[in-house]
Structures are given as C-alpha cells and as structure tokens.
C-alpha cells in the first residue's frame, strides 16, 4: 500500500523584500531549479502574519547550504529590502475593518 500524501497550496509573499516582477520571476525559477535536488527546501513562514490578500509571508531556504531565496534576489539587485514590511503588515491587520453581517 502506498503511503498517504496530502498537498496544500498557498500563495507566498517573500517577507521583508519587494521584487521587480518583470525581472524577478526568471531568477526565482533559476534559484528553485538550482536548489531543488533531493528535496532540500525549507519553507519558513510567519503563519499568523498575512498580507491584505491573505497571502503568507515567508522565505524559501536550502536546508543543505543555508542559502535563502530572498538573499539571492537581494544580491542580484532584483529585490530591494523593505525593513518596515512586518510592521506595515501588522498595522494593516490591526486597522482593517471586518465587514458587517
């Protein structure tokens, strides 16, 4: 009998950076292809912290080398650091209004 597997898909926003979508997509794909061997990925998320669209904030890491996707993108200049990203997200969560039923 084959082992049971389950899958869950989420949208992820890289925490603490802003990427240029025109140039960043291919670099993300390149990083993933380079580090995809032997299931070495580690997904680090701030499970309780989501942006205004409900997307998780997090980062992808290579377990073996310790390389992170955000560091790679920052090093290439495709992403810029946003030091207020966490605070902005929390502020947005606290000030958002729930719709009245």
Report the C-alpha radius of gyration, rounded: 16 Å
Give the beta-strand count.
Answer: 5
Shape: globular
Structural class: alpha+beta
Helix content: 25-40%
The low-confidence parts are none
> The biggest beta sheet, please?
3 strands, mixed
Task: Report on the architecture of this protein.
There is one protein chain. The protein has 101 residues and is of the alpha+beta class. The protein has one domain (12-94). The protein has three helices and five strands; from the N terminus they run E-E-H-E-E-H-E-H. The strands form two sheets. The protein has a three-stranded mixed β-sheet. A two-stranded antiparallel sheet has the order 2-5. Strand 3 (41-50) and strand 4 form a beta hairpin. The termini are far apart. The mean pLDDT is 81.
Task: Give keywords.
two-stranded antiparallel ribbon, alpha+beta
Can you describe this structure in just a few lines?
The chain has one domain.
Write the layout of secondary structure elements.
Blueprint: E1 12-14, E2 17-19, H1 21-35, E3 41-50, E4 56-62, H2 69-76, E5 79-81, H3 85-95
Parallel strand pairs: 1-4
Antiparallel strand pairs: 2-5, 3-4
């Amino acid at each position: 009998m084959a082992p049971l597997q389950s899958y869950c898909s989420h949208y992820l926003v890289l925490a603490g950076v802003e990427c240029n979508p025109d140039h960043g997509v291919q670099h993300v794909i390149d990083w993933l292809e380079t580090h995809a061997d032997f299931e070495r990925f580690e997904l680090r998320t701030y499970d309780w912290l989501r942006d205004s669209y409900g997307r998780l904030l997090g980062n992808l890491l290579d377990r073996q080398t310790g390389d992170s996707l955000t560091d790679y993108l920052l090093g290439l200049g495709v992403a810029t650091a946003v030091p207020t990203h966490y605070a902005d997200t929390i502020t947005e969560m606290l000030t958002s209004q729930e719709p009245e039923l």
